[in-house]
Amino acid sequence: MGQLNTTNISLHTMKRTFLGFVLLTVAFACAKVPLTNRKQILLVPNDQMLQLSATEYKSFLDTSQVINSTADAQMVNRVGDRIRRAVESYMNQNGYAQRLEGFNWEYHLVQDRQVNAWCMPGGKIVVYSGILPYTQNEAGLATVLGHEVSHAVAEHGNERMSEGLVANGLLQAGQVVTGIATANKTPQVQALFQQAIGTGGPLAYQFFGALPHSRRQESEADHLGLIFMAMAGYDPNEAISFWSRMAKASAGRAPAEFFSDHPSDERRIADLQKLLPDAMKYYKR
Q1: Helix, coil or strand: residue 117
Q2: Among this protein's residues, is 148 annotated catalytic?
Q3: pTM higher than 0.90 for the full model?
Q4: Rounded to an integer, what distance in angstroms lies between the CA atom of residue 227 and that of residue 153?
Q5: Which of 106, 138, 148, 220 is an active site residue?
Q6: Closest Cα partner for 180 from 164, 167, 203?
Q7: If 0-12 CB within 10 Å is exposed, 13-18 middle and 19+ buried, where does residue 43 land?
Q8: Tens digit of pLDDT for each residue in 215-237?
């Protein structure tokens, strides 16, 4: 009988622990992404997420060939700043100002043949020189920067790191993640942060968890980015032209969408075309 009692108590404790975790998750699930209104779980305190981002960003820049004082570098800063001003104006006027608290916007052009760009939490943006032949003009670059800024505004990094903490069992019932800042140099936390910004993670989790969810986030960033570039005075139709150039360049070489963390070019273009009428409402020449 004593053993049975212990088992019952253990089961009861597990149920209370699970219930506490569910309540914790629900409490933090009330966050909504601007414009799309999608609900998301954000468990990592913003100041700690930004501290991790700033550290990783500086480390990257210290080991990269940053391009300064060229016409292209000035264009990256000019376009980035226009989008920043548009985003801040919208967020401040629509009750989302808290999402930008602690942001320290930076835009850097880096010498690299990769056709890519990225943005860490807090507005830490990098554009690789390899993408400029495809952007071709400021509106093309605005497509890229609008998309990357949207990842930061939608807090996709925090969302993915929160999911990683849950998946790895690093949360306890009734506790919010408060130790990230002091433990941000541990391999475990570093791995989760790398996963949150798009790298790392077990193969099965990437194929069936991180990557499909990343594709949803990519599509959401396309949506927000299209509107943000329009708010900044760039013609949203240029986004279709940019992705059409990208599709042509990658014809026959792009991986199957299932094995990619981005939507296929065809899907991306079709989705953007559907979103154009809404984006054009925000466009002011």
Answers
A1: strand
A2: yes
A3: no
A4: 13
A5: 148
A6: 164
A7: buried
A8: 788 899 999 999 999 999 999 99
